[in-house]
Amino acid sequence: QVQLVESGGGLVQPGGSLRLSCLCSGFSIKSWLMEWYRQAPGKQRELLGMMTTDGTDKNYSESVKGRFTISRDNAKNTLYLQMNNLTTEDTGVYYCRRHGFWGQGTQVTVVS
What's the average model confidence in pLDDT over 79-100? Predict the structure, then answer.
């Protein structure tokens, strides 16, 4: 059974950092293209970036390029999203995705 479970969200001040995790089961993350998305209040879900099967992170959204980094730990079958220099515009629900499957999301709120 394929499952994706995000964690690590919370409340943070502008300029702060968070690392989100996406613990996956039922498949190997190194065999699939994995993606992080964000849905801000009142907006459409936005693709933030992806991790290819060979371990390359790429296609970062312009809104997060240079501040967010995607990585993975194959042994833990976990995808990560390191978020630095957060702004209020980064507030939203963050999701990881594998083709055909979404996690439940984790809330990130950036507030001064």
Answer: 98
Determine the Cα–Cα distance for residues 88 and 98; give it in Å rounded to an integer: 27
Side chain identity at residue 26, one-letter code: G
Nearest-CA neighbor of 25 among 96, 108, 82, 107?
A: 96
Q: Please report the pLDDT score of residue 14 as a whole number.
A: 98
Taking CA atoms, 11 is separated from 2, 30, 38, 53, in Å, by 29, 30, 16, 32
What lies within 8 Å, CB to CB, of 111 at 6+ separation is 11, 13, 14, 88, 91
CA quadruple 42, 15, 9, 38: dihedral sign: positive
* Residue 100: pLDDT band with limits 50, 70, 90: very high
Give the CA angle between residues 38, 41, 45 to the nearest 5°: 35
Neighbours of 25 (CB within 10 A): 12
pLDDT tier, 57 (very low <50, low <70, confident <90, very high otherwise): very high
Phi, psi torsion values for 89, nearest 5 degrees: -70, -15
